[in-house]
Amino acid sequence: MPDPRLQARACAFVNLHHGRQLDLAGVCRHLEREGFSKHFWPERLEILAEMPRTPTGKIQKFVLRELAKGMVAQEKSATG
């Protein structure tokens, strides 16, 4: 996600199987157990109903980046 000071912050976009739940704390616990450096942990978790994909099935990362930019802009306008 865009950040004025750091240029970018990590955000995890996920979609879940029906009936499953996930929160950011759970993601961080999993990453810690797997030995990931905290530097790579996401600071935000966004659950999507569906990942944006190309006709061949690849995830459209540019769509996720635009979505993140829009969320940051919306938060800025809400906080004034």
What would a concise description of this structure say?
It is built from two helices and four strands.
How would you describe the overall organization of this protein?
There is one protein chain. It is built from 2 helices and 4 strands, in the order βββαβα. It is an alpha+beta fold. The protein has one domain: GMP Synthetase, Chain A, domain 3. Strands 1-2 form a two-stranded antiparallel sheet. The chain has a two-stranded parallel sheet with strand order 3-4. It is globular, with a radius of gyration of 14 Å.
Features:
single chain; 80 residues; alpha+beta; GMP Synthetase, Chain A, domain 3; 4 strands; globular
Chart the SSEs and their pairings.
Blueprint lengths: L1 E2 L3 E2 L2 E4 L9 H10 L10 E4 L13 H19 L1
Parallel strand pairs: 3-4
Antiparallel strand pairs: 1-2
- Could you state the CATH homologous superfamily? ANL, C-terminal domain
Q: Give the class from helix and strand content and strand pairing.
A: alpha+beta
Q: Give the C-alpha Rg.
A: 14 Å
Number of helices: 2
Reading the helices and strands in chain order gives EEEHEH
Give the mean pLDDT.
90
Q: What is the CATH C level class, in words?
A: Alpha Beta
Tell me the total number of β-strands.
4
Distance between the termini: 19 Å
